[in-house]
Every structure is written in C-alpha cells, then in structure tokens.
Amino acid sequence: MRWWPPLLVLVLAVGCSDARTVAIDEVPVAAESVTTTGDASTGTFRVDCGRNEERHLNADNVVIAPGRPFGAHHTHEYVGNRSTDAGSTDESLAAATTTCVAGDPSTYYWPVLRLTDRTGHDEHAPGGGVHGNTGEVLPPARVEITFTGNPVSQVVPMPRFLRMITGDPAALTTGRGRVRWSCTGFEDRHTDRYPRCGPGGMVLRTFDFPSCWDGRNTDSPSHRAHAGFPGSNGVCPPGTFPVPKLRVRVAYDVPAGRPYAVDSFPEQRHDPRTDHAMFVNVMPDELMDRVTACVNTGRTCS
Fold first, then answer.
1. CB-based contacts of 227: which residues, under 8 Å, 6+ apart?
2. Domain segments of the chain: what residues?
3. What is the pLDDT of residues 199-218, one digit of tens each?
4. pTM of the full predicted structure?
5. Over 70: is that where the pLDDT of 125 sits?
6. Positive or negative CA dihedral for 119, 124, 125, 127?
7. pLDDT per residue over 179-195, tens digit each?
8. Are 295 and 155 in contact (CB under 8 A)?
9. Are 235 and 267 in contact (CB under 8 A)?
10. Which residues 6+ apart lie within 8 Å of 201 measured at CB?
C-alpha cells in the first residue's frame, strides 16, 4: 500500500475539493421506487446510541482487520459498544457496556470526517495521522440508527455476531463505492461527491447495509459474501434470506466555506466515494426478536 506524506495528502484533499464537491441544490432528486406487496414488512425499529459524546475513536477495524492495532490506516468513529477495538472478540463485545439506551451492545462505526484546512490530529484518535489523515475531527451532530423491513416479504432475525460492511474503502481503485452524501432538508437528493449545503444545512452521510443473509455464516473471507443486497425489486438473491435492513445516518455541522474530507487509505486520497461503515450485531436474541417482530407487524418501535 503506497504511503503519501501527510502534507501532500492534505494538499490533495483541499486542492481536489472543487472537483469532488457539488452544491446540493444541483443534485437531482433521486428516482427510487420499489413496489410494496401485501407480504411486505413495513415497520421501523429505532435505536438511540447517542452521537459518540464519549469520543470513542481508534484506527482499528475489528471486521476487516481483527487483531491488528491500527489496521484501518485511518480513524473510525463508534457508537454502541464501548469496548470495540482490534482485539475485540464475540465474548468481549457481549460482556461490554453500550451507549445505546435499549441495551443494544452492537457496534456501529465509520471513518471520521475532518476539516482539511487545519493541521494536527485528534488526541483521542491515535494511528490515523501516521497514514496521512490529519486535520480537525468533526464530531457528529446527530446519529440515527433504524432497522426496517423488506418491501416484498417478511424478515428473519439477524444472527448474533453477524458482521457486515457497506461501501468500499478502496472505491477510488475498484470503482465499487456505495455512498449517499446529502444535506439535511435535501434527503431526497444524494450524491457520491462532497455536498455543499445551504445555510443551516448539515452534511449528511447515509449508510445502507446489506439485508440478505446466507442463513449460515456470520462472516466470510471477503466480509461480504455472507450478506448481500436485494435486487432493485426488493427480492433477495436465491439462497439468501431477508433480515432487518440497517440504516445509519450521521449529520455534521460543517462550518460554511470550510473544506472537509473523509478519512481514507493513503492511496485513496480522501475520495468521497470511499465512504463506508461497519456493523457487528451483538443484540441479545430477545432484542433482535423484538426488532424483527416490530418490523414484520408494521409498527414503529424503539
């Protein structure tokens, strides 16, 4: 993996900001329509895990690089499980406390967002700066976690300790990003570029996770083969089963006119298409059963 000097990375992030940004009012309204059938699971279960007020940050990635401190090469922000780091195991996660009010000890995490016209590094986040991720870390203004259903069928419970990733941290190289940048007030518009929001608007990152599980595995060598996305018609691929769909939305108060960028691998140059997030389901079976029942019966719960 090629290493870029921190100053050069900062220049790249700032210097490329014009090409990588777009005014949110120039983004077309998304045309999204999936026909809902009578068998749909239309409920919503909301989980309040705070917005990382405790500043749980590290450069680890227990899903992609378990056992390797600083294995992410960039800094992640966490809500939920208070103990998550490179050394976490199913047992340690299950025994830890959580920031979620419903008693959900799952871990939800994503790369931090930084102001790129400021040098320095967050004292609570060792590791990321070594790989060129420098600048003032922006804390989330709001984090929303919801589980919803499937438009054409009921869902089955997620297995405990299921690991999932959405997005591609190497998307600049692979071209396989799955990102949704937007602004509050413009949630019906999303882009793969950094949005410029109007007065009072917050930058919004939306992470939609896979919702089709293979029925057997909680992880796989690629960390993706065991859980995938449904087709455009909402139907899961053959041999997979619909589970509650996790969506995480993170909003930021970005000062007007200030350039910002997501932490990334050095060679990915802070490209907005590399945005991604990870999830480890540590919900006790009883709580996951509540989530599933709520979604399947069309209720709104928390």
1. 162, 164, 209, 210, 211, 212, 213, 214, 243
2. 6-24+40-301
3. 999 999 999 999 999 999 99
4. 0.91
5. no
6. positive
7. 899 999 999 999 999 99
8. yes
9. no
10. 24, 183, 184, 185, 186
